[in-house]
Structures are given as C-alpha cells and as structure tokens.
C-alpha cells in the first residue's frame, strides 16, 4: 500500500495543510470519482511517490512481474474496460507529476497478456502520460484464445486502440492543459501493435516507435514452428547442441565479420552474409565437438534459408546470420516453439491436443487463410497515416534471435513498391534503423543501448534515444539521421565501452578507419 494512504489516519488533523501542500496528490485521490466513461470500471486510483518499489500482486504469475521500481511521482489509475459483451482489457494509466504534455501508449510481447510495467515506469519518468493494457487476457499462454474470438480481436488490434481512446480522454480530464502530441512505444508484438496502429488507426499517434515488429505475424508463427522439423529432437542426428551452435557462430563470424571492414565480432549487414556451413564438416579423425556432420551442416543451411509455402511463395525470410548463440536454446532447442504451438492449438485448429511436432507448410497455408482480424498486419499502403502527418520510426536488432530482421527489410520494400516511393521520400514519414549487435529488443554483443526500453537506456539525449529522437522529429521537425547506441561493459547501467551510430536503411555501416572500431567516427553509413 502506498505511503500516502498509510499516513492519512495519522494526519487527519493536518490534512488541510497536506492538501494545500500537495495539490497533485489531492487531484489524484479525487480522480476516481470523476471518471464516468462507458464500459470503464475503475479498480483503484493510487498516488505512487517516486522511489516506490511497487508491489504487483495482481500481475499474472506467468508474466513474471512481481514488483516495479517507480522513479517519478505518478498518479496510477487501474481499470477494467469492456471491449465487447464477453471480453475486457485490464488498463492502467500513469499520470506523472512532471508532465510534458505528451500522451503515450505502451504495447505487449509474445502472445501475452501482460501489462509492461517496466515500460510504463520508463515513459512516465520521461514525463509522458502513459497507458498500458493487458491485451485482453492475462498471462503468457495462448489458451485464452480458445473458442473466444473476442479475445483474439483484442489481441490483434482492439486492446491498444481502446487503451488509446480511453487514455486520451483521461489525460484531458486529469491535466487542465490536455495533451499536445501522442506517441507509441513497443517492441516485438509491441512493434506489430505499433504497425497495426499505423495501418488501421492512422490518427491514434503522431509518432510511433515500433521495434523488431512481429508483423507478417501468421507467417512468423509458421516460421517459428518450422525449426523443430528441421532440427528434430535432441536425440536426432540432425540436431545441434547449443555448444555446437556456438561453433557455428564462430565460423559465421570467421566468414562474415570483416565484410563491414572491422573484425569486432559484430556483423553490420547480415544481408551480405551467406555462410557456407559445409566448411566445418568434420575431417577424418577430427574431434566432433568442433565440427559438423553432413546432416548437421544441412540443418544449419536450412535454418538460414527462407520459408516457402505450399505454392512456392515466400512466407517468411531467412533467419539472419549472427544470432545463432541466443537462438539455439529457444528456436533450435529440439522442442516445438511454444507460442506457435499455442497459436495452432487454440486458434488455427481449436484443438488443444494438436501435435506441434507434425507441423508442415500445409499447416502454414491453413493458418494464413484464416488470418483472424488481420493479425498478419502486413498492409503496405500506409498513405492514410502519411496523410495524417504521422511518423513511424522502426528499428531491428541484427542479432535478433526471435524475429528475423530480414522481415523488416521485406516490409520496407513492400511499402516502397506499394506506395511507389523511393527511400528518399519514405524518409519523410517512415525511417528504419538496423541496430547491429542487438538481440531481440535489447541485449546482444554490440551497441544496443538506444533507450528503446529501460533495459537499453544509456541517456535521454535524442541523438542516443529512439523515443526522444521521435519526439524531436514530431515536435521540431528534425528527423533522426542515425541512432547512436551504447555498448555496455557489463549490461545496462554499467560503463559504456564504446558507441556506434546505427544507419538508416537502406544505408549500412562500413568501417573506414583510421581509428579503432570502437571509435564511432571510424564508421560511415554508405
Ligand atoms: C522490490 O521488492 C521486491 C520484493 O517485493 C524485491 O525482490 C526487489 O529486489 C525490490 N526491488 C528494488 C529495486 O528494491
Ligand atoms: C453489449 O451488447 C449491447 C446490445 O447488443 C450493445 O449495445 C453494447 O454496445 C455491447 N457492449 C459492448 C461493450 O460491446
Ligand atoms: C521534469 O522534467 C524535465 C524534462 O522534461 C527535467 O528537466 C526536470 O529535471 C524534471 N523535474 C523533476 C522534478 O523531475
Ligand atoms: C486479469 O486479471 C485481473 C487482475 O487479477 C482481473 O481483474 C481480470 O478480470 C483478469 N482478466 C481476465 C480477462 O481474465
Ligand atoms: C574433444 O574435445 C573436447 C572438448 O575440447 C574434449 O573434452 C574431449 O576429450 C575431446 N575428445 C577427444 C576424443 O579427443
Ligand atoms: C495455392 O494455390 C492454389 C491454387 O492456385 C490456391 O487455391 C491456394 O489458395 C494457394 N495457397 C496458398 C497458401 O497460397
Ligand atoms: C581496439 O579496441 C579494442 C577494445 O578496446 C582493443 O582490444 C583493440 O586492441 C583495439 N585495436 C586497436 C588496433 O587499437
């Protein structure tokens, strides 16, 4: 329970003094009574002072969020909002005392089901009135979708949009000055939700920051499912252990690291890398812990190939080389990928007993044909968003182990072709940055510290922070040319070992010297 409530009984006599000294706090405690919106039920409104370690007792266990440290003073509003007669979202709005006149919606991840409190804490500390919702169901499993299309619809597009509609009304009620600009920040499924807004609700946001987007999502489900039939279970002679994937990764670096001019363990443009896994097939007598069998080399080759459908059409591009070490225990684990299995069981076949080990591209065709509520999120005509004056900034880690960065390039090409616009024109409203050395939405071997989330925060200078770069673009008309990332010595919060300026697609980073590769000025976008 927040300290304010604990203090009340003790300070009753002095509450008039308290009131005059804490108008923000008073406004917060009186806010619940002011909310009369259709379909909205207020669960509680709490003042949370900066420095609170907030207990998240109500957060579903599978979300793994038991507490959140909150750095700024906020007024926390928790609600249930009906989205149909048999579905609802759990919605929170956090109103910071130090408000900048900006509204922001956060997104979700995977198939969840989890309010991303760490994002709400991050953006409210930057002065955004922030909303976050649970995507229409609780927890990380896809089971709530089972025979419940309303929950699927919330997941596809209705949760974020409803949160925005309600959140904007509450923001206008809470702050006398209302809000000036509206933003979105999300990654992975959150990146897809950002593009869903761009495609379907072009007036929801002035600026959308959509990372590692899970768009082309039906095919992403199929692509994630197709690794198991390639690797087989750990007992299979086609399988590689995580230790062997490390050997493969080192070989891929040997073949591709220096294409960008620098031997630094970071591949700047995986699109130029076509590794030959057969190069490390075991020689007679060679210790098999450092080389591959022919069958294993074929596994590597297939994993790094695109997925084609029953008709030979491209469903999903290849996994980009460079992500092997982090992909191994998840995508090539010798187990079917859990999110895909859930999607096929609970949505595609409505059969909880469906056997995920039997997946084939025939299943991919069934799933794509269904595409409920357009989960694909693959519409390439975003002219209504452009006409509305919206800006979208997307980034993708080039070591992403869950969603191939090549898919973001494919979407970029489709938008250019569909709208008939070259990159120079797309730059006016749609900019895409390739983040070398970043894994899925964060982490990785390189300069991934771009402030897309608290865990990747170096600082809030717009040159070094994707969200603040978007704010500068929307409010000052200065678009980002590059995004500077920080390489941390020992994870987020530790010292910065070096920085690198990541290029705007279709440019790529090339090492020109003369300085060390750790010198950002030794690199050029070409
Ligand atoms: C917050 O409290 C939880 C226990 O409720 C604890 O595990 C966690 O370390 C605390 N976090 C901080 C930043 O103090
Ligand atoms: C519930 O059903 C009624 C009657 O069809 C409809 O008017 C109302 O909008 C529905 N509520 C929601 C939240 O969709
Ligand atoms: C309020 O936010 C501004 C930037 O928007 C910052 O410069 C200032 O330090 C913040 N004040 C407090 C009390 O946090
Ligand atoms: C999700 O959990 C919250 C908090 O326990 C609960 O109020 C809400 O009804 C749940 N939502 C669904 C769709 O089950
Ligand atoms: C193969 O290499 C591993 C790891 O270096 C070592 O533990 C093992 O003893 C070697 N096996 C043979 C047969 O040399
Ligand atoms: C494959 O081609 C057939 C015949 O043209 C068509 O009916 C079917 O929809 C196609 N399937 C896919 C997944 O494109
Ligand atoms: C470049 O910097 C790295 C990391 O500090 C260092 O290990 C390496 O020796 C340097 N290389 C040169 C050529 O100075």
Automatic annotation (TrEMBL):
The entry's keywords: Calcium, Carbohydrate metabolism, Disulfide bond, Hydrolase, Metal-binding, Polysaccharide degradation, Serine esterase, Signal, Xylan degradation
Xref: InterPro entries: AB_hydrolase_fold (IPR029058), Tannase/feruloyl_esterase (IPR011118)
Reaction catalysis annotation: feruloyl-polysaccharide + H2O = ferulate + polysaccharide
Molecular functions (GO terms): feruloyl esterase activity; metal ion binding
Signal peptide start-end: 1-19
Pfam families xref list: Tannase
Highest taxon of source: Eukaryota
Assigned EC number: 3.1.1.-
The UniProt record lists the keyword Disulfide bond: yes
Gene3D superfamilies registered for this protein in UniProt: alpha/beta hydrolase (3.40.50.1820)
GO terms classed as biological process: xylan catabolic process
Family to which this protein belongs: Belongs to the tannase family.
Xref: PANTHER family: FERULOYL ESTERASE B-RELATED
Name of the protein: Carboxylic ester hydrolase
Organism: Aspergillus avenaceus
